[in-house]
Amino acid sequence: MKYTIPLQIVLIAALFSASCVATAEQPAIGTPAPEFELPDQAGQLHSLEDYRDRWVVLYFYPKDETPGCTTEACAFRDNIFAYREMNAQILGVSFDDVESHKQFAEHHGLPFPLLADSDGKAADAYGVRTRMFGMTVAKRETFLIDPAGNIAKHYGSVKPDAHSAEVLADLKALSAKAPVD
């Protein structure tokens, strides 16, 4: 008996796999995090240098107001005081524009900057630009950057509902190992 896979399944699988490929190399753990300068939901510019001497949770996400992105952002929001106690700044980044970020942040009471990477340069520098369902977006990935500006941890596989707790636990562990001045 010969088994054949329906053509529709083959085409969907090919389309999905081709649409989820990042276009650039990602920075390695222990190397300097790529610099950026991006506007937030209020139009204020932020750069990585602004957060020297602080931990930075730089999380990339595909699209404002989508289910997974909303779940992830709200989990970071719900843990904001724990992050602040750890001297950590959360920065969300997507290809959405300033106005979209403003509406998203207001709708969900997000107390941290959402950065508009409209030209995709930050996504390229971190190797997270991808095509998904015909759109160019950032893959859902996070970089934990230490106070010296180096990549301390990279999360290439993110579960939106559990991610904030995972990052917070790793941040606590890494902070405990960090040298004290």
How is this structure best described in words?
This protein is of the alpha/beta class and 181 residues long. It has helices spanning 7-19, 67-78, 80-85, 98-108, 121-125, 163-177; strands at 37-39, 45-47, 55-60, 88-94, 114-116, 129-132, 135-138, 141-145, 151-155. The strands form three sheets. A five-stranded mixed beta sheet has the order 5-4-3-8-9. Strands 1-2 form a two-stranded antiparallel sheet. Strand 8 and strand 9 (151-155) form a beta hairpin. The longest helix has 15 residues, at 163-177. It is globular and about 45 Å long.
In a nutshell, what does this entry contain?
With 181 residues, the chain is α/β, with parallel strands linked by helices. It contains six helices and nine strands; from the N terminus they run αβββααβαβαββββα.
Supply the key terms.
181 residues; alpha/beta; Glutaredoxin; two-stranded antiparallel sheet; 6 helices; 34% helix; globular; disordered N terminus
